[in-house]
């Protein structure tokens, strides 16, 4: 009997260690104007909710190349977001947005992401995420859960060959600004840090 119990526990441990391979999406549909797939790659940036000036500077700025090492570069296909290493972006059991391959057992959501016409990344029916301070950086969550958390938007910025262009814009130059970048770590937990980055300045068809 003792050996049988140990065998059952070992089997359960093996299943837990395998992680989640199925799709788990929020019940709410994506907001109007949001799409579950985009062409090419995109970087993500974080902007505080309501910071219109910074948002307008960052949103829909298509870079001719992706930043590469040190900046989180992702893809979005049928509601599933993945990083450059092919790991799935998901909401873990502690509400944190992170990447693993496959997602850890107990994951809350592993699918249901979309990119909206205004450049925001949505999960289910919401475009609001939360950055929560942890020392000198922030971690990202899908909900408020502590006093050190504040609401943010995740902006999807197309980059590299084959990336979608938005609104007929074309790159005419760059401007170096202080912004927030999402840095991928080896353990799959992206961190939000402050950095300086060259943001492409775009020109729409009417010359502005």
TrEMBL record:
Transmembrane segments: none
MF terms (GO), sorted A to Z: structural constituent of cell wall
Span of domain Cell wall mannoprotein PIR1-like C-terminal: 79-152
Keywords, in A-Z order: Cell wall, Secreted, Signal
GO cellular component, one term: fungal-type cell wall
Signal peptide coordinates: 1-17
Pfam families: PIR1-like_C (PF22799)
InterPro entries membership: PIR1-like_C, Yeast_CWMannoprotein_PIR
Principal location listed in the UniProt entry: secreted
Any one biological process term the GO annotation gives: fungal-type cell wall organization
Protein localization: Secreted, Cell wall
Family statement drawn from the similarity comment of this UniProt entry: Belongs to the PIR protein family.
Protein name: Cell wall mannoprotein PIR1-like C-terminal domain-containing protein
Originating species: Immersiella caudata
